[in-house]
Specification:
Blueprint: E1 5-11, H1 14-29, E2 33-39, E3 41-42, E4 45-46, H2 52-65, E5 70-76, H3 95-113, H4 119-122, E6 123-124, E7 127-128, H5 140-147, H6 151-161, H7 175-181, H8 190-201, H9 203-209, H10 211-221
Helix pairs in contact: 1-8, 5-6, 9-10
């Protein structure tokens, strides 16, 4: 039994990788959870156009490398075209229900693909609903200040949607689209400005405001001290 765990996070793109490396990993390390991030791979290509047919190869490789590590995902639901459970996703579900359905479906798929690697014990799927950028809505004061917009514009979005992770999946109103509209030249620099805003907000505030994100991290915390 070890009093720490190691986690490989397969992430969608550069922003998610920087987020893990600069914010999440240092935060989790204090809890004896050591997380490393790697972008979804494809020969000659990194990130973007995330499909399960690409991700499953990486999942298999990392599950097989070491039997004592955990593997997770950090993938955006917005824009995903091919993923276990998408075709059976019912209409008008709550964000938490969408996340549960998709995470259950991919867990079952990975269990079936790699049974010898014990993914039921070692794989913890997480799909950000609806995008990584939703986490930046965890603090309206910081977000509005950094974008030089009125705080009421951010709070209006939160009042309309209920919470950051419920900001919707529309091509016009997804979190990234809203941030684009508030940015110079309507282009939000998520890997630079986005990460800087995330650093000001901090992981504890994100956990407080984003229950799905918080539940994801709680699963790792519960594993410290448990044999992998």
């Amino acid at each position: 039994m070890s009093d720490y765990i190691e986690v490989i996070a397969i992430v969608e793109g550069k922003t998610e990788q920087v987020f893990v490396e600069q914010l999440l990993a240092p935060y989790l390390a204090e809890k004896k959870i050591y997380m490393n991030a790697t972008q979804v791979s494809k020969p000659g290509e990194k990130g973007g156009d995330v499909r399960f047919v690409r991700v499953k190869r990486d999942l298999g490789l990392h599950l097989k490398q070491r039997a004592d590590t955990y593997v997770t995902t950090l993938i955006d639901y917005y824009g995903t075209k091919e993923w276990p459970g998408l075709e059976t996703l019912a209409l008008n579900l709550l964000p938490s229900q969408i996340a549960q359905h998709l995470n259950d479906a991919v867990q079952q798929e990975v269990n079936d693909l790699f049974p010898e690697q014990r993914p039921a014990d070692r794989f913890i799927p997480f799909m950000a609903l609806h995008e990584f950028e939703a986490l930046l809505f965890s603090d309206a004061e910081i977000l509005s200040s950094e974008l030089n917009i009125a705080e009421r514009e951010v709070t209006a979005v939160l009042e309309e949607c209920g919470e950051p992770e419920a900001i919707n999946n529309s091509p016009e109103t997804a979190p990234s689209k809203r941030l684009n509209k508030w940015s110079p030249h309507e282009k939000f620099a998520k890997t630079t400005t986005g990460i800087a805003i995330a650093q000001q907000i901090g992981i504890p505030k994100m956990r407080e405001k984003c229950p799905l994100f918080n539940t994801w991290l709680e699963q790792f915390e519960a594993l410290v001290g448990v044999p992998a």
